[in-house]
Amino acid sequence: MMLRLSRHAAALCFVCVAVFVAMTAMEFLYFRQLSGGLPSLDLRLTGFTPDEGMAWLTALGRRGSEIILVWHYLTFDLLFPALLSLTLVSLILATGRRLKTFRALSAQFQSLLALVLVLPYTLADYAQNIAVARLLSDFLSANPDSLSFASALIVNKFALLAIPVIVIAVFHLAGRPRQR
Predict the structure, then answer these.
(1) Does some domain include residue 107?
(2) Torsion angle of C-alpha atoms 133, 134, 139, 145, degrees rounded to 10
(3) What is the spatial distance between Cα 135 and Cα 86, in angstroms, rounded to a whole number?
(4) Contacts 24+ apart (CB under 8 A), 134-142
(5) Distance CA 102, CA 158 (A)
(6) Which residue range is the domain that position 130 belongs to?
(7) Which of 43, 121, 129, 169 has a beta carbon 3.0–4.6 Å from 160's, enabling a disulfide?
(8) How far is CA 98 from CA 83, 87, 116, 175, in A?
(9) Residue 180 pLDDT greater than 80, yes or no
(10) In which band, very low, low, confident or very high, does the pLDDT at 3 lie, cut at 50, 70 and 90?
């Protein structure tokens, strides 16, 4: 079943990009206004300090926190990590099939390999979403430890996302026809 995902890689990429564009538009056109121009925590690739996290939460206030919680974490961020993960798995399978050694592996092993490469990112993204959603829903839970934990999850999410992206790039480059 998972091997069929490679047939839908282009469609998954299109939908994934469309959802990403919608999320990015919401961030820049609406969420930044709510926070006084501060970027959302989960967009900070290198993490944030507890003071930066508190500044963002304080700037949002109760109303802004509720809006971001509903319009980002309970809508887009419930869908996007799963959608991106399916897209990454489909791209690993599609680009891997161009390689003779990858094609020689059993279909089950190809699927397992793709899943093992993507699943850590998926789990880290959902864990990070839960941590930030908890901060937004319960302002009193925001302390230096919970903010540092959320920051570490964000950094790990992006580091783990880099793994399947690099594998896809390597498979793509290795699978290109050689020019003479």
Answers:
(1) yes
(2) -110
(3) 28
(4) 135/41, 135/53, 135/57, 136/57, 136/60, 136/65, 136/66, 136/68, 136/69, 136/73, 137/65, 137/69, 139/57, 139/62, 139/65, 142/53, 142/54, 142/57
(5) 26
(6) 2-175
(7) 121
(8) 23, 17, 20, 5
(9) no
(10) low
Residue indicated by tokens 């864990």: 127
The structure tokens 């397992």 sit at 112
> Tokens 């926070």 identify what position?
35
Residue 149 lies in a domain: yes
* Structural domains of the chain, count: 1
C-alpha separations of 125 from 1, 72, 87, 104, 134 in Å: 24, 13, 15, 32, 14
**180 located within any domain:** no
Instruction: State pLDDT tens for residues 94-142.
Output: 999 999 999 999 999 999 999 999 999 999 999 999 999 999 998 888 9
Please count the residues of the chain.
180
User: Mind listing the pLDDT tens digit for each residue in 137-177?
Assistant: 988 889 999 999 999 999 999 999 999 999 999 999 998 87
**Tokens 């299109």 label which residue?**
14
